[in-house]
Amino acid sequence: MQIKVTPLGAGQDVGKSCILVTIGGKNIMLDCGMHPGYNDERRFPDFRYISKEGNFTGLIDLVIISHFHLDHCGSLPYFTEVLGYDGPMYATHPTKAIMPILLEDYRKISVERRGVEEKDMFSSQQIKDCMMKVTPCALEETIMIEEDFEIRPYYAGHVLGAAMFYIRVGQQSILYTGDYNMTPDRHLGSARCDKLRPDLLITESTYATTIRESKRWRERDMLNQVSECVRNGGKVLIPVFALGRAQELCLLLDAFWERTGLKVPIYFSAGLTEKANLYYKMYISWTNQKIKDTFVKRNVFDFQHIQPFDRAFIDRPGPMVLFATPGMLHGGLSMEVFKKWAPSDKNLVIMPGYCVAGTLGHKVLSNGGKPQIIDMPRDEGGGKLHVRCKIKHLSFSAHADAKGIMTLIKQAISVDPVNVMLVHGERHKMEALKERIKTEFGLPCYDPANGATTYITTFHGVPVQLSTRSATCSRFPGWAVESDP
């Protein structure tokens, strides 16, 4: 028996996660993301690998979306409404609720600002139509897709609603992590699952070789950097995605402003704070225990010192802190503000998350935070930008680091021999982690590139029921094997 795996995205790369798995005769698509580093046809997975003629509904038995980040769900409306897939799709309740907000924001940036033709994209109505076809599921709920074909989501941390998915078809099974975090933070718990003993564990490996410093040290460093900048009259830009690390860092700064009495304004992209609060109230059960315990007294997401931002404030003199989307500076308000504030050496840009190759955020970080001249993207007006502001990469990314990945492997597989596959990471880092997994666990480990197919052979015993009370063991004739009557 074999399991067949082909990444259409996230194979030795971060971006447009889309993993095709054939297990027990069923074809399953794990995530359907887009790549934030591209504006052309490369932003979507190459679905022609599945079929050049279409008929995706007849070829794909199930689509699973692990969470609402666009590199995991950004191609879904295109796959369903433009290419015509109409089969079963599952995501958790928060993921289904939040996905359309981020998809619409992405559509607006692509079509209205970057000039991508809507025929190569998807419309607002198509986003709504697509979401109607997604079936929501609850944590640790076993869902029977067909007879002897089931899925079960487990808590992944990372962002609100993120889930790892256990999939079983007959005797074969896999665990797909999506993105996950093994360290609890200010508003979410750590990833957890049962001793599942899957035949194959497919795990993200964004921080495959990184062991992060303690969270307390990172928080202290960020607060020191921000307060020093604003006390010296500078402006601080923190590019974030609308939900996830944004709420984590807002909690941190809001509490610090309360303790220190700082009067410098903190802003968040207008409209997004209100939407985020709505969903955190609605899905409070997905947060950590501390948030749940305090929720009856006060909603911690009703921030005391953070207010909506107006574009007219960009040129306002004086210090301020701004959380702006998107998180990789690949368009939207964060890029607009960056172009205005970057030329001043009084200002500070803090990059709290991972930036995919091809984005402006990745380009800014690649110079180690030193002053540089950047060629701006053509679809953002082009030209050269003198970056004199301070650039700091303080990782608050909610991905498992190398230690967390090794911990999940121990937690999920027990002692049974299984296979591990690394996706959603950089090739050279995945290679290093692959060797470590082989050495420490003695497990086969794979890291296929996009478009490369891996075949994994699995072995399962066949249960036998003897009809007599005892039977002679052919290998050892003097032994008897007891059986039920």
TrEMBL record:
Gene Ontology MF annotations: hydrolase activity; RNA endonuclease activity
Metal-binding is among the record's keywords: no
Protein name as annotated: Integrator complex subunit 11
Localization, UniProt: Nucleus
GO biological-process terms attached to the record: snRNA processing
Family: Belongs to the metallo-beta-lactamase superfamily. RNA-metabolizing metallo-beta-lactamase-like family. INTS11 subfamily.
Species this chain originates from: Guillardia theta (strain CCMP2712)
Pfam family, one: Beta-Casp
GO CC entries: nucleus
Domain (Beta-Casp): residue spans on this chain: 246-364
SUPFAM superfamilies linked: Metallo-hydrolase/oxidoreductase
Domain of life according to the entry: Eukaryota
Residues annotated as domain Metallo-beta-lactamase: 15-211
Keywords, sorted A to Z: Hydrolase, Nucleus
UniProt signal peptide: none
InterPro entries for this protein: Beta_Casp, INTS11-like_MBL-fold, MBL, Metallo-B-lactamas, RibonucZ/Hydroxyglut_hydro, RMMBL
